[in-house]
Amino acid sequence: MSESESNLIRRTLTEFFRDLLRAAMETRKVTSSEESEHYLVRLLERFAHPAQGWDSRPLALEYLEALHSPPIPRCTKLRHVADTSLFMTGIFMENLERQIVPSSYYMALGRLAYRQLADTLSPSGAARGDVFVELSDRFPDFVRVLTEISFAEMFRSEEQTVRIYTRWLRTRGADDAQWLMRHGIVPVDPGSASRH
C-alpha cells in the first residue's frame, strides 16, 4: 500500500470516527472542548487497531505500577489505564455488566488515572494536562457518548434492545429509558401501570 493510500485510509477513518462522535455527542447532549473531542477521536482510532497485548494485564496493576514509575513511563501507563477504562466502559458496557468487577470500578479507575496523568503533566506546563482534567471531570459524560456509539452503530440488534429494556427494568436508568424512547419503545414496567 502506498503512503498516499495509507493517508487516505487514515484520514477517512479519522473522519468516520469524528462523525460518529459528533452525532453521539449531539444525541446525548454532551459538549466538550475541541481538544477533548480530538482526543476521543484518536482514542477510537487507536482501539480500531489495538497493540497486541493491550488487555493482557489487570488495569489496577498497571495503575499501581504507574504510581511508582519515573515520569515518562508513569504517563504512558496512566494513559493506558485511563484510555482502556474509558473505551471498555463506553463501548463494552453490556459485557462489563456481566463480569464480576462492575463498570463503576472501571469508571472510577479511569477517572483517577486521567486525574493523575493531568497532575503529572501540570508541573511541566504541558497543555495536554487540561485535556486530561476534562476527561477526568467529565468521564461519565464521555462514557455515555461512547455507549451511544456502541449502541447505535456497532452492536445494534434486537437482542441489544431486549438487554437494554431488561437493564432498564433493573436499574431504571435515565440513559436507558432515553435510548429506548429514541428507538420507539416506551419503557413500562409490566408489574405496574407507571411509566418512566
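The above is record 1. Record 2 follows with the same two-line structure.
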Amino acid sequence: MVHSNSVVEHVGDWPRMEAFAGEIRRLAPAYYVQTPYYWFPVEPHFSSLFFHWRSEQARARLLLKRGYGFSAKSKDIGEAMRVLQHARLLDKAQFRFLFPDARYVDEKFAGLTKSLIAIRP
C-alpha cells in the first residue's frame, strides 16, 4: 500500500511526475494519492487567492516584493523561480492520466473541489 499526501506536485516537472506515478502503480497493489487541485481558488503553498493562475513571470515578480504563505520574500529572480517551480498543481485530466487505474474522489470545501484523490483498492 502506498499513501501519498500532497507529494506528486513537488517531485518536479512532468516527466518526473510520470515517473513518480509509475513507481507508485508498479510497486503497490493498492494506493491512495492526494494532491491539491489546480482549479481551487486558493493556492495552498502560497496561501493566496488566484496566485497560481497568474503567469510564472508575474508570480516571480510578486515574490520579489513580499512573501506569500510558506515562502518568504525572494532575494532574487533565481530564488523566486526555484520557489515557484517547487510545486506544480495538477488538474483532473493530468491527475487521471498519471493514475489511470484508480477510482477518483474529489475532496470538497465550500462546494468546490479542493483536492484530487486517486484510490486503487
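The chain has two domains: 1-45+91-121, 54-86.
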